[in-house]
């Protein structure tokens, strides 16, 4: 679950092409630098965002990423919400297994992204779509 | 779509990735490199990722694929310049980069390729060498 208060207006990037995945990475990087995440934490968050943005594009049929700076009283963080209205994920246990893929990938996107962030929350419904919220906090 | 340039330096192809590649650009690079290896007969490929601030599973797979393709085409691939934060992240992501040789920088990469070519020659010429050394 993601706690914390929003600082500032969220920035939204539509995800409907390859180039948009690049834009999501850049937006997340800029926001993570401004939130003063460490270099390693920035790298982890941008990598997780790249994986999730690609999933939104390829499996979700496109969608969006909403990036917000948050604060929980002690520390700052960056929260990203990936949303699509695609087919949803029928079996989450399977989807989070390292190496599981229905698209010829490496099957590390979901499981790897969850390891790389501090908070990870997923909502999905077959036929309705998928919504993944991740947060990385400054230390 | 942007395209990553491939330079030929002696017997080596050098790819220095300077842009945040889209997936399409990465796939294109794979194809371009295979063609250049065949066209030039080069036996070494150095991929310099000093400028890359992340390597995700897509780029990781591209690097592995390039290494496999070049092996089949009798060329050796070395990835150089990986940033420490990228290495830390790769491990946590779960990417093993199996079969990829790495070196600190371009210079070390070139040494590695030269050394492994030399080893191969030694093995191939082992009989001949024995004869030469035996002759006073
Ligand atoms: N947004 C999404 N909508 C529908 N299915 C998804 C979504 N994200 C992931 N999946 C499913 O989960 C699987 C695992 O995803 P991931 O771990 O990123 O591996 P990969 O992308 O290599 O297939 C995908 O192959 C796909 O079946
Ligand atoms: Mg994926």
UniProtKB/TrEMBL annotation, chain A:
<feature type="domain" description="Histidine kinase/HSP90-like ATPase">
    <location>
        <begin position="40"/>
        <end position="139"/>
    </location>
</feature>
<keyword id="KW-0808">Transferase</keyword>
<dbReference type="Pfam" id="PF02518">
    <property type="entry name" value="HATPase_c"/>
</dbReference>
<dbReference type="GO" id="GO:0016301">
    <property type="term" value="F:kinase activity"/>
</dbReference>
<protein>
    <submittedName>
        <fullName>Serine/threonine-protein kinase RsbT</fullName>
    </submittedName>
</protein>
<dbReference type="InterPro" id="IPR003594">
    <property type="entry name" value="HATPase_dom"/>
</dbReference>
<dbReference type="InterPro" id="IPR036890">
    <property type="entry name" value="HATPase_C_sf"/>
</dbReference>
<keyword id="KW-0418">Kinase</keyword>
Automatic annotation (TrEMBL), chain B:
<dbReference type="Pfam" id="PF01740">
    <property type="entry name" value="STAS"/>
</dbReference>
<dbReference type="InterPro" id="IPR036513">
    <property type="entry name" value="STAS_dom_sf"/>
</dbReference>
<dbReference type="InterPro" id="IPR002645">
    <property type="entry name" value="STAS_dom"/>
</dbReference>
<protein>
    <submittedName>
        <fullName>RsbT antagonist protein RsbS</fullName>
    </submittedName>
</protein>
<feature type="domain" description="STAS">
    <location>
        <begin position="2"/>
        <end position="113"/>
    </location>
</feature>
<dbReference type="InterPro" id="IPR051932">
    <property type="entry name" value="Bact_StressResp_Reg"/>
</dbReference>
């Amino acid at each position: 679950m993601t706690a914390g208060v929003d600082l500032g207006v969220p920035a939204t990037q539509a995800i409907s092409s390859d180039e948009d995945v690049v834009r999501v990475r850049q937006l997340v990087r800029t926001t993570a630098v401004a939130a003063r995440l460490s270099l390693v934490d920035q790298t982890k968050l941008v990598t997780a965002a790249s994986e999730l943005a690609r999933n939104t594009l390829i499996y979700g049929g496109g969608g969006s990423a909403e990036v917000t700076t948050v604060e929980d009283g002690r520390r700052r963080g960056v929260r990203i919400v990936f949303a699509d209205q695609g087919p949803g994920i029928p079996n989450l246990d399977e989807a989070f297994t390292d190496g599981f893929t229905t698209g010829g990938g490496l099957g590390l996107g979901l499981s790897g992204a969850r390891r790389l962030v501090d908070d990870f929350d997923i909502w999905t419904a077959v036929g309705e779509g998928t919504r993944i919220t991740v947060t990385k906090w400054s230390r | 779509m942007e395209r990553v340039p491939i330079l030929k330096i002696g017997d080596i192809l050098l790819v220095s990735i300077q842009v945040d590649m889209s997936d399409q650009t990465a796939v294109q690079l794979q194809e371009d490199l295979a063609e250049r290896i065949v066209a030039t007969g080069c036996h070494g490929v150095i991929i310099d990722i000093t400028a890359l601030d992340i390597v995700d599973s897509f780029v990781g797979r591209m690097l592995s694929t390039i290494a496999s393709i070049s092996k089949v085409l009798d060329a050796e691939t070395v990835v150089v310049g990986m940033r420490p934060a990228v290495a830390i992240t790769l491990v946590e992501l779960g990417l093993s980069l199996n079969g990829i040789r790495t070196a600190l920088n371009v210079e070390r990469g070139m040494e590695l390729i030269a050394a492994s070519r030399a080893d191969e020659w030694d093995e191939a010429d082992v009989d001949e060498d024995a004869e030469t050394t035996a002759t006073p």
